[in-house]
Amino acid sequence: MYILEPYILFLFGILLIAGIVITYFASIKYEFLIISVVLSALVAGFFFENVINWTSEEIEYGLRSYLKAGLIFFSGFMGLIYYLKKFRTHKFKISLNISLFLLFIIFSVASTFYSIDTKNTLNRSVLLFFVSLFLVGLNTWLDSEEKLKRLINTLYYLAIIFIVINLIMLLANPARVWWWRSPNRFIGITAHPNELGGFCMVNFPIFYWKIYNSSRKQKIVATIFSLLNLVILLLTGSRTSLLVSVIGLFIWLIIYKDWIKILLFFIIILLGGIFITQFNISTYKRDAGSNITDLTERDLIWKGAALFIYKKPIIGYGYSVEGKIFDNQKLLNMEEQYFNPNSQQPLHNGYISIFIGGGIIGFLLWYIPFFMVIYKTTRTPDNLIFKPFVLSVMLPILIANIVESAIVGYFSATDIYFLLAWIIGDRFYRQKT
Asked: What is the pLDDT at residue 48?
């Protein structure tokens, strides 16, 4: 009879006790679940080995995938428990927007039956379902402005910790934090500079909120960390994240009608934009002979994806198949430009990604709830504290979604923070009206 080694039993016991303790605190503090679901979007990068590897770095496998799935399962399960505990007492039931979101998930699971990548579609649909359970629980928990402040404070401290860790790694282990594919681009403790850039992008509205809604001492701290966040973003060379971060700040200042700051900021951005474009800074270039405005073959990828959309426009090819549509395809000749597709190819456009996966049905079920919340939020008074945060998170991410897969599920920080802002907007619009 095989007997487990004592150290394995000891480790198992420690993990069991830790799991019980975390579960207990998560049952009384929803902030633990918020931390858990945010970490699920970042955990894969923690295990990234920054060495020469020409296989796709976007595929999750091994321990990192189990940790990601475990965090999502835990957050979803506890979110469901919280919802059921409060089912009879909470004032608001599941809204129309959340109902449409759940219909999308049902449709995604159903797409497994015809998906060209059955395993991937099923796995990601199930995980998205557990994310939805977390969101349902969050919708129940978020019943006051005091809890909204707690949520944003949780994200604020997560942002500070993340920034500090990245700066420490920059000094302690520079070989880990500069991307091997492009050594002048900073990846920190993530797996890709665009991943880090996306996280920096969603941090800005959190810092703005603290600057505008805190004491003088807290404003100073938030300002310092927002500047450090900007430094890290600039080091990533993520063009999209930088551009939409600028748009997010303009949205925030417009809502607050801070016209002097808008003018000053516009002048700074104009001068900065001229400097970057004129000097063609290498961090923002993708190839030796390119300039910073090049799409790096994105236009060819989109044209190739469009050919497949035309073939199956109603129900698509299965949720989250992404570049699998290019599997076993010959070279596609588009306007005398040759693009060599492969099954690991990201589509770099969230709208196309959802359309490829679910056709027009999936596209409408996915995006209508988001645009409904944005429309309703724009119609609320400017003095409501949730409005600038919701719009300065959601609108920039939807713009980034044009050239990146920024909101297509639960995969990245932009996905998670977008969904958090969406729930905040949906919840507080209904509460205020």
From this structure: 80
